[in-house]
Amino acid sequence: MSSILRRDFGSFHSSNVEELLNLTDDNFISLPIPFPLYDYENDFKISFGNIMKEKYFLLDNTYNFMNHGAFGCVLRQALEYSHSFQYYIEKQPLRFYDRELLPRLVDIIRKMARFLRCKTPKNVILVENVTFAWNSVIKSLNLNDKSHIFIMNTMYGAYKKLLHKICLETGAKFYEFIIEFPIDDINKLLDEMKLILKSSEFTHAFFDHISSNSPFILPINDLCYYCKQFNIICIIDGAHSLGSIDLHFDYEDDYLPDIYLTNCHKWFCAPKGVALLYIKSNTKLTIHSSIQSHGIHSGIHSEFIWTGLKDYTSFLALNECLRFWSFYDMNIIIKRNIQLAKDASDLLVNMWNTSKLTSDDISGPMRCIKLPFFDEDENFKYDHAEIIQNQLYHRFNIEVPIKVIHGNLYVRISAHIYNSIEQYEQLGHAIINIVRKRSQKEETNLLTYETN
Q1: How far apart are CA 46 and CA 40, in angstroms?
Q2: Which of these ranges, 71-75, 183-187, 246-250, 370-374, has the smallest mean pLDDT?
Q3: Nearest CA among 361, 352, 429 for reference residue 216
Q4: What DSSP assignment string belongs to 315-381?
Q5: Residue 31 carries which DSSP code?
Q6: How far apart are CA 445 and CA 422, in angstroms?
Q7: Percent of the chain at pLDDT above 70?
Q8: Among positive and negative, which fits the CA dihedral 84, 86, 91, 97?
Q9: Do the Cβ atoms of 205 and 223 come closer than 8 Å?
């Protein structure tokens, strides 16, 4: 390996990032891991649920945790892997940063590209989080008064704010497609979106693969293909996709997005601070890092791979995540989590006599179920949701978000390998308890009013 490494940018002794990415698998040699690795074979593939939680996570048993979709939950072994590298680094910091860091990051890029079935390792860029990647992409688009942007009303709030700001500064036009819930027919929704995309001269289209507050799986490959016919640049926010659905990029070019962003700390269970930016091989876009350092003018990966001194061990810990997902079979885990989310949502719908926000065919391991509040005329606000979420947290030790969608209250459940159906049953009873107390309070207030 040492004969292949050379200086390309900065003072690093091994900064020929682009050259290392271009090597064939036979010619690229991974640096050895400088500490013992966890042996999953000794676990004999333990069962999902509480046993897996005790073995692979640090979750506090005091709480019923059904909010994996918020910030994820790190694998214990991946966190320990990260910490082991932190100790290793400090034994000889210059050895690591000058001679090892960049080749190790290239190794991770190559492995993740292979895992996602990309055409080349150069399709994948390591970033701190999707927000960083989003800022880098948006600022690289060079939007102007001739730009016409298509977004969905489910777009992540922070991204929508940034786009609004840039459109005001540049004069770019902005169209927000309104998705009405609940969704029972995804094909009807797609037809409506395509009709709008066709009717105006859009230059860029932004889609959520899995929206956050109102989760459903959008058939993005179909939309990417449609956008291609009208020369619309297609950018996908897939923050919730990696580890929750079968994400891969071995489609024909016309069905691929120009840009795809996904977090690794959520459903993939990596330590906080690592995400992926996918760039299609033949895209017309030129993307630059929003933070510029030594790698500028040395290639896109060189630009992104070093953005200054920071803790890079979360990036390296992807190696341990890959080992875990490989041992337990990612497809088995994904199918199991989606089935658990379906079973849990069915259970809650039956307990509360309510409904789901989206149909099962477009729902993954994160779903919304309507709460059983009897006053259908009441237009619920965020304050109502916050009160119920705090009651669940403080009275029942349940961690789960309550969402307001079109004036209705929904609970957004997540299902991962450490969850079990009993947890959602506990949630069901807790909500019934809250509703009963609310009803009793209203009856008491009414009785007091009539007496007076």
Answers
A1: 10
A2: 370-374
A3: 361
A4: HHTHHHHHHHHHHHTHHHHHHHHHHHHHHHHHHHHHHHT--BSB-GGG--SEEEEE---S-TT----
A5: P
A6: 35
A7: 94
A8: positive
A9: yes
CB 286 within 8 A of CB 140: yes
SS3 category, 294: coil
Indicate the residue type of 148: H
Hunting for tokens 């088995």 — which residue is that?
A: 332
Asked if residue 64 lies in contact with residue 397, where contact means CB atoms within 8 angstroms, the answer is yes
Strands 204-208 and 233-237: parallel
Pairwise CA distance, residues 223 & 220, whole Å: 5
Residue 327: which residues within 8 A CB-CB, separation 6 or more?
Answer: 40, 41, 45
| Nearest one of 97, 124, 102 to 15, comparing CA atoms | 102
User: pLDDT per residue over 263-298, tens digit each?
Assistant: 999 999 999 999 999 999 999 999 999 988 888 888
Q: What three-state secondary structure class fits 208?
A: strand
Say whether the peptide bond before residue 182 is cis (omega within 30 degrees of 0).
yes
Instruction: Note the pTM of the prediction, 2 decimals.
Output: 0.93
Check residue 406 and give left, alpha or beta (phi > 0: left; psi -120 to 50: alpha).
left
Pairwise CA distance, residues 108 & 312, whole Å: 12
Asked if residue 213 lies in contact with residue 69, where contact means CB atoms within 8 angstroms, the answer is no
415-448 tens-digit pLDDT? 999 999 999 999 999 999 999 887 766 545 544 5
E strand or H helix at 426, and its extent?
A: helix 421-451
- For 270, list phi and psi in degrees, rounded to 5: -80, 165
How many CB atoms neighbour CB 443 within 10 A? 10
d(CA 124, CA 107): 12
**Alpha helix stretches (DSSP H) within 59-117:** 68-71, 76-91, 93-94, 101-115
Rounded percentage of the chain residues whose pLDDT exceeds 90: 85
Structural tokens at position 36: 């013992």
Among residues 196, 239, 242, 191, the alpha carbon closest in space to that of 219 is found at: 191
Looking at this protein, which amino acid is placed at residue 216? Answer: F
CB 76 within 8 A of CB 57: yes
Q: For residue 206, give the nearest of 192, 218, 188, 191 by alpha carbon.
A: 218
In three-state secondary structure terms, 303 is: helix
> Greatest CA span in the chain, whole angstroms?
91
- Confidence bin at 374 (pLDDT 50/70/90): low
Q: Is the pLDDT of residue 377 over 70?
A: no
- And the tokens for 395? 């009275």
Residue 110: name the closest of 31, 14, 21, 5 by CA.
21
